[in-house]
Amino acid sequence: MGTFGINATQRSATNNQSTLDYSVESIFLFGNRYQTATFKNNTGAEATFKSGFLVLRDTTTPANVIPAIAGETLANVIGILKLNNDTTLANNGTTPANYCISGDIDVNLLQLPATVTLDTVVGTTGKCLRDFLTDLGFVLKNVTENSNFDN
Question: Of 27, 29, 124, 130, most Cβ neighbours within 10 A?
C-alpha cells in the first residue's frame, strides 16, 4: 500500500479489456496534525513497520521516536506512526518519519502490539488505551468499508 492507501487488483483481462478493483483506506481521516522525527527500531530484532504503529519518545535521544511494544510503555504513547510505505529496519535502524499527534483516525487500521486492544487497561493507571489516545486529541472512528466489487 502506498502513500494514499490506494490498492488496485486486476480481476480479469482479455485481449481488449481489463477489469481492476480499486479500494482506498487510510488510518488518518480528518484534521490530523503531525510532527517530524527519526523513527528507531529498538525491538531487538529486524522488524517491518507501517503506518498505524503507536510511538513513544526515545528518552535517550529525544529527537527519536520508538515503537510502543506493550506493557507500561503504552502509558507514554505520544502519537501514531505515519510512513509512506511498509519499512523494514534492522535492530537500532532508523528512518525519517512523521507521527500523528491528533485528529480523526480509523481504529481498525491501528497496528497494536500482540494481545493489546483499545480496551486494554494500561498498567495501574485504571485507564484503557482508548482513553490515552482520546486524551492526546484523537477522535476514534470505526470505519466500515463498503466497496462492492461485483460490478
Answer: 27
Task: Give the separation between CA 145 and CA 111, rounded to whole angstroms.
Answer: 18
Among 77, 80, 69, 129, smallest CA distance to 103 is for 80
Could you tell me which residues come within 8 angstroms of residue 27 by beta carbon, excluding any fewer than 6 positions away?
A: 5, 51, 52, 80, 105, 106, 109, 110
- Could you tell me if 72 and 122 are in contact, meaning their C-beta atoms sit under 8 angstroms apart? yes
The 3-state DSSP class for residue 18 equals strand
Contacts (Cβ under 8 Å, ≥6 apart) of 87:
48, 49, 50, 95
Backbone angles phi, psi at 47, to 5 degrees: -150, 155
pLDDT per residue as tens digits for the range 92-119: 999 999 999 999 999 999 999 888 999 9
Confidence of residue 32 (pLDDT cuts 50, 70, 90): very high
**For the chain, domain boundaries:** 27-141
Classified as helix, coil or strand, 124 is coil
Distance separating alpha carbons of residues 96 and 60, to the nearest angstrom: 17
H helix runs in the chain, sequence order: 129-136
